[in-house]
Amino acid sequence: MATVLVTGGTGFIGAYVAADLVEHGHDVVAFDLSTDETRLSTLGVADDVEVVRGDVTDPTAVVRTIRETGSTHVVHLAALLTDGARGNPRAALEVNCGGTNNVFEAARTLSDQLERVAWASSAAVFAPPERYGGGGGDGGGGEFGGWVTEDDLVSPDTLYGATKEYNEHQARVYHEEYGVSHVGLRPTVAYGPYRETGGSAFLVDLIEKPALGESFAVEYGDQVIDWQYVRDVAQAFRRAAFTPEADLTRRIYNVRGECATIREAAETVESVVSDADITVSDEGELPWTQTLDTTAAKEDLGYDPEYDLEAGVREYASVLREERGLDPV
Fold first, then answer.
1. Which of 14, 32, 155, 224 is packed most tightly, with the most Cβ within 10 A?
2. Hey, where are the domains in the chain?
3. Element (H or E) spanning 131, and its range?
4. Does domain 3-127+140-194+228-257+289-306 have CATH number 2.40.10.120?
């Protein structure tokens, strides 16, 4: 088995990635500014994960930690997300672009040791939804206004998305000029227990409040979201880290879960949580492009989501309820 360094490894997705890797027999090092092991503990893997405090903007720390831990693979997740990038654009460039460059540089300089960098791009690299109008792919047609493939227009409208687009370019150069083996994933918005709220608080509250007996009102009822359960996101990064070179037909892959409207998701919550009190309106407009074609990830990486919306909501709600001393759903 391998030793995998996960940048951002104590965060929401990072902790699930660490847990997934441990469950598959790998040694894991969580490299993060935060050494808070709460998520790792709740997932039952704190004793199995080495936590190293470090900053991806420090190139020496990145190289030293990879070398000293004997890591053969890196899953690079550390980044400032949309709200953080908007509020501190210079830091976003330093962390998202400079930090990613430090990881690729480490892979270049430690080429005899480091075999693969799996890293997080984002669906935010795509243009606003109205720029896409057709297509086929694994979605079966344009039910949601066009399934977006990896080769469709890339034109982000946020600074966060722009940093991820830049990283796709530098990743290509590091592969073509220096032979760095990398696989980038374009996930959407992950949901599941222990997620930070941020700008997507309504996605958290739509499940958490009803699960704990609180009423909730949500907008955007007729708009489609990709409901990607966090354990499936973790699975995708593991597969990106370990899929053999010969099986890769590209270096950047879309990954998603189940596409459904906010209203459909609310109805799912109501079917799982019997006393859920949810009010849905069609007001407001979401900016995200969420209807990603994932044919390539399925064929090359073997990515196959294990959680449909009902299964994800059920596990999410049950975890929360059990932590509060309530019966699972």
1. 14
2. 3-127+140-194+228-257+289-306
3. none
4. no
